[in-house]
Every structure is written in structure tokens, then in C-alpha cells.
Amino acid sequence: MKVRKQHLQLAIGALFVALAWSAVSYYARGSGRPPVPAPGGGGQPPLLGRDQPGPEQSAVRGIDPASIPAPPSVERAAESASSRDPFLFGSEVRDVKEAPLVVAGGSDPLVRSILLSANRRLALIENRIVGVGDQVGDFKVVQIDRDAVIFTTATGERRRVTIRGPVPAGAYR
Question: In this predicted model, what pLDDT tens digit does every residue of 109-142 receive, in sequence order?
């Protein structure tokens, strides 16, 4: 490729445009340092008056804790937020009746997963999350262990049901 005089002129012109753009943007936004006040105080008046404390003066004087208003109650905010369904408009009301979990007579409930944390023990039984004390059909959850859930029946019989459900090929329990 042969470099022509027009190519060189175009490159030098682009360089000058880039330098000019850089200089204009630098001076338009400033250098990031505060301006130096003119001697004799002929510049702008300070943003805060002498009687208003600045950030460095408020620490020296201190703030009276009684003058700070109390924050809004968290309990009221939590009640109002949880009592309203975000998917309904205005005064609409949704009647949701939770259907009882039905387990086939004589068979144990299907335990699909067990969730353990420091504070809670939950189990996924028949596609529903339950905890200790919850009723699952004719069974009541008494205890949730690492690999099994212990139920009691209406007659008082205790049943230990281990985790079952579809296991992908190659997965180990």
C-alpha cells in the first residue's frame, strides 16, 4: 500500500481534532481541584454562613440526641407490607383456600427433599414445604432428620420415611 499525501493530511487533521476535543473537555469539567480563593475575600461567599455549623464544626459542638426524631415503627411497616397482595389492584381481595394435602391411604408420604439450617428444618413432601408439627394427610411431622422424616399416624404409630423420588442417572445419595 502506498501512503499518499492525502492520507497523511487526514491523519494529522484527526490528531488535531482529538487534541482540541481533549483540551475542551478538560477545561469544561475542571481539573477536579477546588478553585483557589482570591486574596482579599473578593470571591464567592461561603455556602454555609458563620452561624451554621459545617461538617468539621458539628463534630466539635455535638448534636443533642433529643432533637433527632424517632424512626418510624418497623412493626407497622411489616404488617402493612405483608397484608397486601401486590398483584391485586385497589380494594380487590383474593380468597385463597389451601387445599389439604391428601396422601393415598395406607402409603407413606413421598419425601422429595430435606432442607436444614441452623434455625429451621423443612421438608419437601408431596410438592409442599412442611415443618415440624405440620399435618400431611393423616400424618403429622414429628421430626426432620438429615436423611429422613419421622411421622406419627392418627393411631400413634411412628413411621420413618427416607428421601425418595426421581434420581437422575449417575447421581448418588
Answer: 889 899 988 888 999 988 889 999 999 888 999 9
CB 120 within 8 A of CB 131: yes
Query: Whole domain around residue 115: which residue ranges?
Result: 111-162
Angstrom distance (rounded) from CA 119 to CA 122: 10
Give the type of residue at 13. Answer: G
Beta-strand ranges (E) seen in the chain are: 111-116, 121-125, 128-131, 135-136, 139-144, 148-152, 158-162
Residue 119 in domain: yes
Residue 156's alpha-carbon distances to 47, 62, 105, 129, 144, in angstroms, are 78, 67, 16, 23, 17
Q: Strand, helix or coil at 107?
A: coil
The distance between the two most distant Cα atoms of the chain, rounded to a whole number of Å, is: 102
Q: In this structure, is residue 172 part of a structural domain?
A: no
H-assigned helices in 71-136: 74-83
pTM summary value: 0.38
